[in-house]
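Weekly modeling sync, notes
Attendees: S.R. (lead), two postdocs, one rotation student

Agenda item 3: backlog of single-chain predictions. S.R. asked that every request posted to the team notebook include the full sequence so nobody has to chase files. The rotation student volunteered to paste the first one in as an example of the format we agreed on. Action items at the bottom.

Example entry:
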Amino acid sequence: MDHFSIAAGAGDALTGDVLAGLAVILAAAYLFARLARRVRQPTVMGEIVAGLALGPSLLGLLPGDPVGALFPADARPVLQALAQLGLVLFMFGIGYELDFARLKGTGRRVTLVSLSSVALPFALGAGLCVLLFPWYDESQLSTDGVLAPALFLGAAMSITAFPVLARIIAEGGMQRTRIGSMALACAAIQDVLAWCVLAVIVVIATASGLWPLARMLMESGLFLVVLLYAVRPGLRWLMAPGRPWAGSSSLIHTVLVTGLLTSAWATNEIGLHAVFGAFAFGAAVPRGLIEAQAPQVTERIEQTSLFLLPVFFTVTGLSVDLGGLGGHGVIMTLAVVVVACAGKFVGAAGSARLTGASKAESMTLGVLLNARGLTELVILNVGLGLGVIDGRMFSAMVVMALVTTFMTGPLLQRLRPQEEPRPVPVPTKSMEEGV
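Predicted structure, as returned to the notebook:
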């Protein structure tokens, strides 16, 4: 048998393994999403749990090696690539849905709530990392010292899952209430702050000296300048009404997908994660022109990302082993959950109360902004890839993301203030909608 036949046979076997794995992933995601709906949770939370269940934490408890049989070692790089593709498509959608108009004139209360509900969890998370750092497995870290891990954990504690939050608010009928509008505005500001802070942390963690650090900062700045002053005007010109190709959905689709993938590649080459490029490109594209000419294009990109996100959840689940946490890991998990909830709730509810919100409104805002969801998993995977977080802390933070999101719905039923809807035009379409 020649080498070509051997390679072809190996390729066929790999294709079969990947297709079988995808079939199991999608079926499990659908079933768990249906269960999530039955218990009044966002469907994406069911898909996240499905991904964790297919990993060592649940499926791995069965005799033999069912995880290895379903997801052989040679198939995992392919699944990882598909997961990253789904991730960059999703992050493009997050940037695209980021409505900067909501950030204008938001007022003193929203600004203060946003800043305090980022600053307090950041400080508490960084402090917790310093305390728990002796329990980290330093062989899994790529950096020396506690600075980068502490900054990363602080940033990860600070995030609010804007897409999941938008879905929770929409399903709860709060999209046109004052508290729902405030929560979405705060989450939008927090998203901008958290991703900017995380980008800085990535630069600090990956730069090996002053010159590499300066180079990454300059290249990142140049990327943003090109995006804002060359790409965005170019897209406006391309999509301007009256062009011979105006309204061509195939052209707009090709341009957007090519642009987001190129932007993801660029930030990956700079040394940042690919998600930053996709997010920045999504925020820079002329949303009004796209919505006027071919709104179905972004929906197609969204549906593709929603198809691939269960693969991302499963790849994440393969790195989470709750059964292997041990005594220290359980303590780390409990500490992470308590600190995360306390930081977000006190930061948001306390500042809202100080600026004149009622007790019920303040507590509701604190509960809403405590939801981490999918965005937390994105950040945690960035940190794991950077080597600023070890396996046990990664598992602990995944548990925290699930707990803080699962608790949001039930708590809202008890705490949500009764108020009449206001005619506030707040877009609530979420990346997870239709999952």
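Discussion: group reviewed the output briefly. The mean pLDDT is 84.
Action items: rotation student to repeat for the remaining queue; S.R. to check formatting next week.
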